[in-house]
């Protein structure tokens, strides 16, 4: 089972790009087993479990290489900070950059700058709006679809649902929501009653959910753009004694959400093994450093999507303790 | 002194909510004259100044500035006419330089930028003209109080034919700084500046004033020329009784009860020195003296709010330490002069205010407040003191001054009080309520509490005290403990006139 | 020598010390590329700090700078995306205009509606941020931030041949203009007067409300100006742009010697403060430290700097007090 969780490589490496790169003169190819290498890892917000799990995964993998140092930076959820850090890493001639961008548009210029300086950039979860070495992502649009389908199935294709959204403008939230809503279109008898931002926060989502429940007498399904908010929604529903009437779904699959599912307080979430995602990004970085591909020739960024698990009470045993984050 | 009249105010009337404060006051100040304005508290000095400065409108009367009738409706009108007040609290901009302060609002500019060269020259010329030298580039907050006063004076001298009003200017100055100020005042007079000098201190008047206007109860009593100056006569003018009748004489008593509070050699450097006295159980000891004589500071030091540099205080033979919390535990209470600022918490209810100093009694070992006991204590205090309205939840800010003071007293009364220190017990309180406060104090004294009262109101001091100490320049100058005395005796002592023989004969 | 000049020299020495420490531990720290980089990092904060300096000297506070900068940037992004034919200078003027209007709104709420600065600008911060969301570029109803492709506009993020970035030049110009305004004009003196002792300033015939209005207006202008460079740098306007920037700005101003109580500090001080903070950030990146420590170190440094100021201020005052008294007496005797 664990095997199936491990990378589901949808490596959409453009072969065209590959060959073009090979043809295009020499690039400083490095030996990841011998050369002294510095890799910078810019995390959107070090306080979040996702970023933390990646960090653990990356550092875990890097332990095997005494010649490689990984330095982590906290982007403080600020595009300006991440841009400053990118500039600093480029100026310091780091060998590679792992980046969890705060915003795909705002980081595009910095990513391009790094790639032009011969520093491969691998983004995590959120793409940068410029072709670069690779993106290692959780599924988002698809995850949204999965949740919609799961809810529809449980409620028999008929009923009322609400969405607790991410902070306005956050791409992951936008994609999750888009997938969810697109899938819902296939169920004409399901009504999307309302959507409000819970700003990624448990407390805020709790408030929003309470508001929903006073406004609507019947809610069959709730989709929250992350687990933290789903936890908040669940607390609110429990407090008002309406937990049993509705399905509550989150996304990400953090340890606490899995516990909630075990206790029956949440219906499900889309679990991704974030340790693995970190390791994958690191291994891909070594590959990029040692290969002769030139991302500047790419017309599109290759994407590696992590295999998701739809975590419900039935499937929880597929996610053992040691891969919960 | 020239004969040019700078300011003439004639027949000034002013009343506040029906109460006549000024009843046809006249005042005339000539250029090159130091004109003293004297009068007891409430005689109308500050109202008159505020009318001249355009802070209050006058009800009746005329003001002429340099022979021209003037309408002064605002501070800026007054400023334009060359009138300036130097208050006890200075009104400079602390972080600007001497030059910037002197020329504030009158800057010289060239092409939109400040022309600091010309401005510095203007200030230096001004300093030269009046013989007052300061570094124009120094930041004001780095100057001493006296130097800051000099800056204020210079600021008021930037106009032609200036008239400077000084309101108790020496109150916050040391003796040497005061002398330096007198020197400045004399020089300004020689340069033709008119100065209106408001003070309680007779010796300053004797030193400085060319003429003296005495106010009493909103009326002119007299204008005295320097050659006719006689301190005893002036005191009588201020108090308003030529011969003290028996009704105005109050008996002083040697204390009968045992000594309770004993103060020995109490000193706070630069404020008061070597203050020693005993206060007995059951007496109300009054402390008189001019503002700045150190009375309030002595009270605060006994209470532990200020630190003493030397001296010893004992209560019933037990030595008293220097912390407020410790002294409250030992049975001390202080009713401060600045009631609003220090006496109570304005937005809290009567109940919370009374309970405030008593939470040690109201809470159990875990610090949890017994709210039943809290409201009982409050109800007791409200009924004992007849606080009106008697609504425990009412914020104290909404009470009248007298009732506010009752609450302040109440918070000490609920305790096992042994010494109550009161600073200006009825400042700003309606006449009707004053008597009630006095009776509360007397009631406390009768129960054996030592009450010490500081007051500038002579009538009050005589009314409430059984014995009076008069302080002067940080020392105890006289003690009245027997015979009959009048306000005049106290004021004379406060002004440094020792007429002890006279008093002894009474 | 005057107190202010001594303090200035000490703070420059501290800055030099910081540079010395970092350059000793990292050979790369003083590389021209890195120097220009930290100058650039200081610049946006620094431009905003010029305006906020005026506000804080009037004993006020401006918490809306980050949000107002984001709003100006978002409006520009709208122009660049939907109306690509509008010339870039016009777009920039729009940004500055939005900034000034926003600043004047702050001033209006503070001086006319008589709200405390802290509450007023906290509220307008929300308004500006909300407007930024409202104007965010959308695709089928969802916010989709767009990368700006206008080369002429993106040129603002460029540099002159020596490597100095345009934004740093703008910063330097603003510091010079701001300092002149503060020290050499009537408005500047009145700004100090308003913050130091508002009552006496009023009594000296100064329209202190007008001065506060001016300070907020200037702060808004700085937001407009800074947003041009910030947007060119990020290449896209996001809803979260400039979040928390106001605190970096306030930290720089306070480290630079302005006091919340008003009447103290100047623009050059705030410039040093902005440099100090950016050098510190840049320097710590060179150590292999966890990013938790970055924040802690910054916090500790802010406390040390402000504490230093307070202690120094107290010491200097007590010393000058006695010596000043002596000097006066000496002169009086000489007369």
Give the key terms:
heterotrimer, B: 506 residues, alpha/beta, 6-stranded mixed beta sheet, 19 helices, C: 335 residues, mainly alpha, two-stranded antiparallel sheet, 13 helices, globular, disordered C terminus
* Rg estimate of chain A, integer Å: 21 Å
* Oligomer classification: heterotrimer
Number of helices of chain A: 11
Provide the helix percentage of chain A. 25-40%
Strand content of chain B: 25-35%
How many individual helices of chain B?
19
Brief summary:
Helix content of chain A is 40%, strand content 18%. Chain A has eleven helices and twelve strands. Chain A starts with a helix and ends in a 13-residue tail after the last strand.
Question: Would you write up a description of this structure?
Answer:
With 325 residues, chain A is an alpha/beta fold. Chain A has eleven helices and twelve strands. Chain A has helices at 2-5, 15-23, 49-62, 79-91, 108-116, 141-154, 171-184, 202-215, 227-239, 255-262, 274-290; strands at 37-43, 68-74, 96-99, 121-124, 134-137, 159-165, 190-197, 221-224, 247-249, 268-271, 303-305, 309-312. Chain B has 506 residues and is α/β, with parallel strands linked by helices. Chain B has a six-stranded mixed sheet with strand order 6-9-10-3-11-12, with helices on both faces. In chain B, helix 8 packs across helix 18 (487-494), helix 14 packs across helix 15 (401-413) and helix 15 (401-413) packs parallel to helix 16 (431-446). Chain C has a two-stranded antiparallel sheet with strand order 1-2. Chain A binds chain C through residues 43, 46, 69, 71-74, 76-80, 83-85, 87-88, 91-92, 102-106, 108-109, 129-130, 167-169, 174, 177-178, and chain C through 28, 31, 33-34, 37, 40-41, 44, 133, 136, 142-147, 154, 157, 230, 233-236, 238-245, 281-282, 285-286, 288, 290-292, 294-295.
Spell out the blueprint of helices and strands:
The complex is a heterotrimer of chains A (325), B (506) and C (335).
Chain A: H1 2-5, H2 15-23, E1 37-43, H3 49-62, E2 68-74, H4 79-91, E3 96-99, H5 108-116, E4 121-124, E5 134-137, H6 141-154, E6 159-165, H7 171-184, E7 190-197, H8 202-215, E8 221-224, H9 227-239, E9 247-249, H10 255-262, E10 268-271, H11 274-290, E11 303-305, E12 309-312
Parallel strand pairs in A: 1-2, 1-3, 3-4, 4-5, 5-11, 6-7, 6-8, 8-9
Antiparallel strand pairs in A: 10-12
Helix pairs in contact in A: 3-11, 4-5, 6-7, 8-9
Chain B: E1 5-16, E2 19-30, E3 34-38, H1 45-52, E4 60-65, E5 68-69, H2 75-80, E6 83-86, H3 98-102, E7 109-110, E8 113-114, H4 116-130, H5 145-156, E9 163-167, H6 175-190, E10 194-198, H7 202-208, E11 211-216, E12 219-225, H8 231-239, E13 250-252, E14 259-268, E15 272-280, E16 284-289, H9 295-303, E17 310-315, E18 318-319, H10 324-329, E19 332-335, H11 339-343, H12 350-355, H13 359-362, H14 371-385, H15 401-413, E20 419-423, H16 431-446, E21 450-454, H17 458-464, E22 467-472, E23 475-480, E24 483-485, H18 487-494, H19 500-505
Parallel strand pairs in B: 3-10, 3-11, 6-9, 9-10, 16-21, 16-22, 19-20, 20-21
Antiparallel strand pairs in B: 1-2, 1-4, 4-5, 7-8, 11-12, 13-24, 14-15, 14-17, 17-18, 22-23
Chain C: H1 3-25, H2 32-57, H3 65-82, H4 88-111, H5 117-134, E1 138-139, E2 142-143, H6 151-154, H7 166-184, H8 186-196, H9 198-203, H10 208-234, H11 245-255, H12 267-285, H13 291-334
Antiparallel strand pairs in C: 1-2
Helix pairs in contact in C: 1-12, 2-7, 2-10, 2-11, 2-12, 3-4, 3-5, 3-10, 4-5, 4-10, 7-8, 8-10, 11-12
């Amino acid at each position: 089972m664990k095997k199936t969780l491990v990378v589901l490589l949808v490596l959409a490496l453009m072969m065209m790009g590959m060959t073009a790169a090979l043809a295009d003169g020499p690039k400083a190819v490095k030996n990841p087993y011998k050369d002294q290498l510095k890799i910078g890892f810019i995390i959107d917000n070090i306080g979040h479990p996702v970023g933390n799990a990646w960090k653990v995964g990356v550092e875990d993998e890097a332990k095997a290489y005494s010649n490689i140092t990984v330095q982590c930076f906290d982007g403080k959820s600020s595009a300006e900070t991440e841009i400053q850090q990118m500039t600093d890493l480029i100026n310091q001639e780091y060998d590679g950059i792992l980046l969890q961008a705060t915003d795909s548009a705002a980081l595009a210029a910095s990513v391009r700058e790094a790639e032009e300086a011969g520093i491969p950039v691998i983004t995590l979860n959120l793409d940068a709006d410029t072709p670069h070495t690779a993106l290692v992502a959780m599924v988002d649009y698809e995850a949204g679809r999965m949740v919609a389908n799961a809810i529809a199935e449980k409620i028999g294709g008929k009923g009322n649902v609400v969405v607790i959204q991410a902070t306005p403008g956050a791409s992951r939230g936008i994609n999750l929501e888009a997938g969810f809503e697109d899938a819902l279109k296939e169920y004409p008898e399901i009504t999307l009653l309302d959507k409000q931002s819970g700003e990624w926060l448990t407390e805020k989502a709790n408030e929003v959910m309470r508001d929903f429940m006073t406004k609507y007498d019947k809610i069959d399904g709730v989709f929250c753009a992350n687990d933290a908010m789903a936890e908040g929604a669940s607390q609110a529903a429990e407090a008002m004694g309406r937990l049993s009437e509705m399905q509550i779904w989150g996304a990400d699959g953090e340890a606490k959400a899995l516990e909630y599912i075990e206790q029956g307080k949440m219906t499900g979430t889309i679990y991704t093994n974030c340790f693995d995602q970190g390791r994958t990004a690191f291994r891909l970085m070594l590959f990029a450093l040692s290969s002769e591909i030139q991302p500047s020739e790419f017309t599109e960024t290759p994407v590696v999507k992590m295999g998701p698990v739809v975590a419900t009470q039935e499937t929880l045993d597929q996610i053992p303790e040691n891969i919960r984050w | 002194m020239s004969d040019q009249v700078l300011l003439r105010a004639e027949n000034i009337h002013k009343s506040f909510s029906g109460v006549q404060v000024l009843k046809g006051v006249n005042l005339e100040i000539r250029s090159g004259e130091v004109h003293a304005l004297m009068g007891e508290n409430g005689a109308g000095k500050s109202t008159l100044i505020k009318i001249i400065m355009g802070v209050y409108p006058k009800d009746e009367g005329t003001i002429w500035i340099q022979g021209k009738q003037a309408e002064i409706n605002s501070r800026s009108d007054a400023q334009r006419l060359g009138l300036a007040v130097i208050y006890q609290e200075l009104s400079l901009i602390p972080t600007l330089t001497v030059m910037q302060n002197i020329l504030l609002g009158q800057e010289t500019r060239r092409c939109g930028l400040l022309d600091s060269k010309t401005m510095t020259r203007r200030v230096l010329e001004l300093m030269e003209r009046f013989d007052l030298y300061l570094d124009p580039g120094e930041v004001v907050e780095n100057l001493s109080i006296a130097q800051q006063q000099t800056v204020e004076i210079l600021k008021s001298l930037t106009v032609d034919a200036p008239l400077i009003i000084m309101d108790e200017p020496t109150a916050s100055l040391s003796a040497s700084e005061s002398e330096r100020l007198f020197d400045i005042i004399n020089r300004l007079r020689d340069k033709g500046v008119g100065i209106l000098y408001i003070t309680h201190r007779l010796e300053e008047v004797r030193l400085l004033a060319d003429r003296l206007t005495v106010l009493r109860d909103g009326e002119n009593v007299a204008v005295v020329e320097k050659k006719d100056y006689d301190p005893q006569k002036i005191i009588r003018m201020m108090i308003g009784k030529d011969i003290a009748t028996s009704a105005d004489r109050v008996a002083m008593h040697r204390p009968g009860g045992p000594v309770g509070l004993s103060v020995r050699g109490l000193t706070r450097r630069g404020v008061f020195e070597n203050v020693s006295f005993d206060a007995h159980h059951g007496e109300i000891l009054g402390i008189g003296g001019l503002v700045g004589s150190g009375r309030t500071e002595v009270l605060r030091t006994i209470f532990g709010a200020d630190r003493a540099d030397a001296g010893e205080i004992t209560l019933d033979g037990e030595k008293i330490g220097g912390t407020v919390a410790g002294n409250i535990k030992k049975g001390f209470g202080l009713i401060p002069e600045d009631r609003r600022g220090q006496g109570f918490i304005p937005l809290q209810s009567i109940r919370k205010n009374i309970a405030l100093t008593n939470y040690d009694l109201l809470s159990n070992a875990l610090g949890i407040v017994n709210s039943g006991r809290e409201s009982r204590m409050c109800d007791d205090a409200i009924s004992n003191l007849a606080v009106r309205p008697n609504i425990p939840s009412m914020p104290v800010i909404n009470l009248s001054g007298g009732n506010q003071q009752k609450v302040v007293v109440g918070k000490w009364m609920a305790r096992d009080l042994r010494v109550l220190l009161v600073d200006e017990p009825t400042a700003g309180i309606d006449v009707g309520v004053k008597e009630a406060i006095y009776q509360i104090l007397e009631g406390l004294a009768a129960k054996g509490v030592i009450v010490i009262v500081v007051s500038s109101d002579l009538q009050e001091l005589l009314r409430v005290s059984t014995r009076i100490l008069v302080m002067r320049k940080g020392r105890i100058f006289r003690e009245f403990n027997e015979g009959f005395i009048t306000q005049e005796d106290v004021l004379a002592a406060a002004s440094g006139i020792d007429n002890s023989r006279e008093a002894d004969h009474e | 020598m005057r107190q202010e000049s001594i303090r200035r020299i000490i703070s420059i020495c501290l800055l030099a010390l910081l540079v010395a420490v970092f350059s000793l531990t990292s050979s790369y720290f003083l590389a021209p590329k890195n120097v220009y980089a930290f100058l650039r990092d200081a610049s946006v904060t620094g431009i905003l700090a010029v305006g906020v300096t005026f506000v804080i000297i009037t004993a006020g506070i401006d918490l809306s700078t980050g949000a107002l900068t984001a709003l100006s940037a978002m409006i520009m992004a709208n122009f660049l995306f939907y109306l690509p034919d509008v010339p870039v200078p016009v777009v920039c003027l729009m940004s500055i205009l939005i900034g000034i209007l926003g600043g004047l709104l702050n001033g209006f709420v503070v001086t006319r509606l008589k709200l405390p600065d802290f509450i007023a600008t906290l509220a307008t911060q929300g308004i500006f941020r909300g407007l930024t969301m409202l104007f965010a570029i959308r695709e089928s109803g969802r916010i989709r931030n767009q990368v700006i492709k206008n080369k002429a506009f993106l040129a603002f993020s460029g540099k002159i041949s020596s490597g100095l970035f345009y934004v740093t030049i703008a910063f330097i110009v603003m510091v010079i203009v701001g300092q002149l305004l503060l020290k050499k004009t009537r408005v500047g003196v009145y700004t100090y007067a308003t913050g130091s002792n508002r009552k006496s300033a009023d009594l000296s015939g100064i329209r202190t409300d007008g001065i506060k209005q001016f300070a907020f207006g200037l702060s808004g202008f700085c937001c407009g100006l800074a947003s041009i460079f910030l947007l060119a740098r990020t290449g896209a306007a996001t809803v979260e742009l400039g979040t928390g920037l106001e605190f970096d700005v306030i930290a720089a101003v306070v480290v630079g010697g302005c006091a919340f109580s008003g009447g103290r500090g100047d623009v050059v001080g705030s410039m040093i403060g902005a440099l100090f903070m950016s050098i510190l950030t840049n320097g710590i990146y060179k150590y292999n430290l966890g990013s938790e420590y970055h924040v802690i170190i910054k916090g500790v440094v802010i406390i040390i700097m402000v504490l230093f100021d307070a202690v120094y201020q107290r010491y200097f005052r007590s010393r000058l007090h006695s010596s000043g008294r002596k000097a006066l007496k000496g002169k009086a005797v000489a007369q």
